[in-house]
Amino acid sequence: MATKRPRLDAEDDPGPNSQVKKIEDISLELSHLTTETKRRRQDVAARRAANADKDVSVIKISLKSFCTEQSKTLPWEEVLKDMNKMVLEAYVLANMHIVRLCHLRLPVEPLTQNFFHQCLSTVSSGRPLGNEHFRASVKLYNSWRAAGAPRASNRHIARGWQHNAALQMKTNSENAVKLNFYRRLHKQIKRSYYIDGSEVYLMLKSILDPVYDGDDVEILAWRARIPRKNNGYLDDKPHLLLPLTFMFLSDIEEWNHRNRETQGYEEICHFSLLPTKKGFECSHFTMCNLGLRALLKRAGIAVPNEDVWIAEADSWWRKLFRIEKFETVNRKFSGVIETDGKAVSIVLRKPKREIVETALDEKDYDVLWGLDPGRRDLFVATNQFGEKIFCTTREFYGDAHYKKRNQKTMVWQENRPAVLEAVRNMPTKKTASLEQLEAYVKFMTPRMDLLLEFRIHKPFRKLRFRRYILAKKKLRQLCQRLTAQAGRRTVVGFGDWSNTDVSGLLKKCPAGPVNSFRRELKKHCRVETIDEFRTSKLHLVCHCEMKNQYSKRLCKKDGVERTLKVHSVLHCTNNGCHGMTVNRDENASKNMLMLLIECKLCGQPRPLAFSRPRT
Q1: Is residue 242 a contact partner of residue 98, using CB atoms and an 8 Å limit?
Q2: Which of 30, 42, 91, 459 satisfies CB 3.0 to 4.6 Å to 276 for a cystine?
Q3: What is the C-alpha separation between 280 and 265, in angstroms, rounded?
Q4: What value does the mean pLDDT take over residues 331-354?
Q5: Quick check: 124 and 154 in contact, CB under 8 A?
């Protein structure tokens, strides 16, 4: 273990040990948390068995073109507004409940669909449900709400719409907690011990490994806090990770508060323990067979009872919507759609096709591409003829009209002073402080109807749907550029980077849709995944590690000229290359082309310089 550098301001900084004193041993308490016996529904079991050999296909079109004249008169806007308001408040209530439990050193209950359904029902009715701790949180939340702020109505939509929303909230929360835990722990270690690079990696490895034979006091203290399975590995159940996540967030807020007067201070970004609704825009909601029945009941239409409805639901779908337009011999409607009131995603089922992996043969392909995906450039690709194709992330978002949509949004907001005032003065909900959450709820609840109606009445959803169409069009054009010469007789060696690295977003450089581009490209040609290990660092000619170029730049903050590293330009110091300078991404694409030809097509072992060391 590398020697750790001392913490700055050690006498004032409580460190990670003191941060967890309030919530230590919660993992042990959670192991004794009782759970109700799960009920098994026979209809759900039968549906899962029937879907075992089925695959899913989704078609996204405008809701207007999907509806018949009769279904256009249904109360879509009324139901969607109530669902948006319910989900908005339910996420805030769930976050507040978790923060309150962590402050009181109480075990966090599992994030089940039933938990989020309780949150949705509570914010619509105002009546506390669930156990005593949840009831206490509801009572506190109700005391924060502005007097007279209208609640969302769940009339007839508690079945279907609300159940599907609760399931989506559960999935979003599980993914947010589990997928972000390693990155947040990584940043916590860097911030606590002022170490970086391999030192952080080695310390994290020692903390998370199932077995540790060392005697480092700090590592042993961290290992005691990590929830583990019986085999010693990390137990990534969200309710077990939330107490540690709460500690990370509390430490960030403490650090920001302590250093805000320090010269050169840069605030560390906060996050919320659970995800929240994306602003006040109209979200997409799932409507199943029961959801359609609820929508019809909301419209005052007489419908059969639930036990009879399932058998008759398909005939209602076909009477109200243009289902036959999208069905084929193998592709059949599943009884589920997802809509925001303007666009609709139609879920169709089809038989699963057996995936047969055919061996790569160079005779079957005329054009070979090595493709390096990235942040600033969506991709850089080079073929065996030396031709290069690239697309910057800025170009993609520009052609998809992301910037134009943001500009229109700003204009619409500036023309509504009340909306602009609410948006600019909204307190943050990304906090571990109950006082800050109280300020947010008191400010948000009297204004949420104004902001939700503004987002519904203005054509934001139309802009979002158009942006989706243009993004799909741009991806298709990029795929056609790569396959223009040989069509299906093209094979692409696609780098395996997927925008999930620990570093997070670079400033002013949001990543492009790498995975969406990969999926679209598979429809046009054969795509082979290439391990990107060291493809950027090693020179394509000599396979020696290259160094970054440096240049003098004038810093905008203080106007001082400094010598800074240029990330995109690398310099080979090997004498045989005569000091060659190359573009980082172009070099990586050529290396991946080499690996595609030598390893995938010719069956040779991966060159030693590009191989991962054995541990």
Answers
A1: yes
A2: 91
A3: 31
A4: 93
A5: yes
